[in-house]
Design a protein that fits this description.
With about 290 residues, the protein is α/β, with parallel strands linked by helices. It has 13 helices and ten strands. It folds into two domains: about 170 residues, Periplasmic binding protein-like II (D-Maltodextrin-Binding Protein, domain 2), CATH 3.40.190; about 90 residues, Osmoprotection protein (prox), domain 2 (D-Maltodextrin-Binding Protein, domain 2, 3-Layer(aba) Sandwich). Strands 7-6-8-5-9 form a five-stranded mixed sheet. Strands 3-10-4 form a three-stranded antiparallel sheet. Strands 1-2 form a two-stranded parallel sheet. Helix 2 crosses helix 13 and helix 4 crosses helix 5. The chain is globular. The relative contact order is 0.18.
Length: about 290
Amino acid sequence: MDRKTIVACLMLLLAGCTGSKAIVVGSKNFTEQVLLGEILAQQIERQLHVPVIRKLDLGGTLLAHEALTGGSIDLYPEYTGTALTAILKQPVASDAQAVFDRVRDRYHTEWQLAWLPPLGFNNTFAMVVRGEEKASTLSDAARSRAWRLGMGYEFQTRPDGLDGFLNIYHLRLDGAPVTMDLGLIYAALQSRKVDMIAANSTDGLLSVLDVKVLEDDRHYFPPYQCAVVARETTLARYPNLRPALEQLSGHLPDAVMRRLNYQIDGRHRPIAQVAEEFLNTFPVKQTAP
C-alpha cells in the first residue's frame, strides 16, 4: 500500500470518527485540471482542516458534470465557455462577464450549483502550428493551404469545437482530423504527423517549444474563464469553504497557469509538489475550521 493510499484511508477513518463528512474534490482528465484539483484539495486541507478525498482525472466535461450533479464530488474547476456550450447547449458568446453571469444563474436554477469568482485565467482553445509557418491568423491559414489537423476527443464533438470552427474559417483539411489524447498533440506536431493542433492557451509547452498560436481573428472561440463550481449544499455545510476557495480567485493569471503546467508537462515534476509550492507563494488569511 503506497503512501497516498495510506493517507486517504487515515483521512476516511478520521472522518468516520469525528462525524465529519469528507469534502470530495474532482477534476477532468488533463494536466491543468488535475493540478487545479490538487491545489483546491490542499487549500481546503490547509484552511478548513477537514478530510479531503481526491477524485481527480475523472474524464471529460460531461463525466465531471454528472459527478457533481449526482453528488459523488462536491466541487471541481470548470470553464465558462465549456459550461455555456457543452453543458447548457447555448450559442457561443464573446462577452466574458455576460457568459459568466448566464452560466452562474443557470447552474443555480437547474442544479443548485454555485460558481465562485474566476481564478484569473482564460483557457481558450488555441490553434497551434510550428514556428516555421508563415500564417499568423486563422484566416491566413485558411487561405494558405490544406492542413493535417490534430485534436483531443472533445474538440471533435463539442458545439464550440471542430464543426463550428470549420464553418467559420473554411479551413481546408489534408485528410480526416486525427483525434488523440491531449498529452500527445504537441509530440504529433513536432514529429510532423499533423500540421496544426487544437490545443489550450495555457499549455505549458507553448512557452518553450518553437510553435505559435494562430490569432482567432474572427473571434470564434468564446471566453473560457476558469472558476470553481461547487454544490450549494456543501458550501452551506461548511460555511468557511467558500471564503477559503475564494482566496484563490484572481491568483492564477494566464502566465502563472502556463508556468505551473510546464512544471508538470515539461519538467515532469509531481503534481502535489507543484501545487504545494504555488500555495506557498502568496499570503492567505487563515480560515477558522
